[in-house]
């Protein structure tokens, strides 16, 4: 995890300073998990707001994978331009790269974006094989994972 992604995730999570999460130590499992969980939560909320609460599992996971591998900007571009389902997501990912000067973004072209999308489809199939049926579970108290207890898990053992 690179430092800007880590810092962004920790900022989104609004974790208290008292638990000592720091992107200076990105290999720390709690820091890494906290940053990723907050980023995923934000991306899930973006998908729900732009594509609807009834977005199917496959489409939502594909969009999350687009955000993970191509960046949240590419995910947002796809959804804003009608890429909320199936092959439309793939087409909009390609369109994003094709629309950039020189047909690439930061050295990445549409073919790379589509390869990552296709790999995302394999990830979706793996998730299903593990029994995942919904991306939007209902939490009785609206809490996030990792739960914000104000303490680090490793210090609670």
Major sheet: size, sense and barrel closure?
A: 2 strands, antiparallel
Side by side, the strands of the main sheet go: 1-2
Number of helices: 6
Report the mean per-residue pLDDT as an integer: 83
Roughly what percent helix?
55-70%
Poorly predicted runs are: none
**Anisotropy-based shape:** globular
Question: How would you explain this protein's 3D organization?
Answer:
The protein has two domains: 52 residues, no CATH class; 81 residues. 57% of the residues lie in helices and 3% in strands. A two-stranded antiparallel ribbon has the order 1-2. Strand 1 and strand 2 form a beta hairpin. The longest helix has 23 residues.
Short key terms for the protein model shown above:
2 domains, 157 residues, single chain, 6 helices, two-stranded antiparallel ribbon, mainly alpha
Condensed summary:
The chain is mostly helical and 157 residues long. It has two domains: 1-52, no CATH class; 55-135.
Layout: helices, strands, pairs:
Elements: H1 3-13, H2 29-51, H3 57-70, H4 72-80, H5 86-98, E1 104-105, E2 108-109, H6 110-129
Antiparallel strand pairs: 1-2
Helix pairs in contact: 1-2, 2-3, 2-4, 3-4, 3-6, 4-5, 5-6
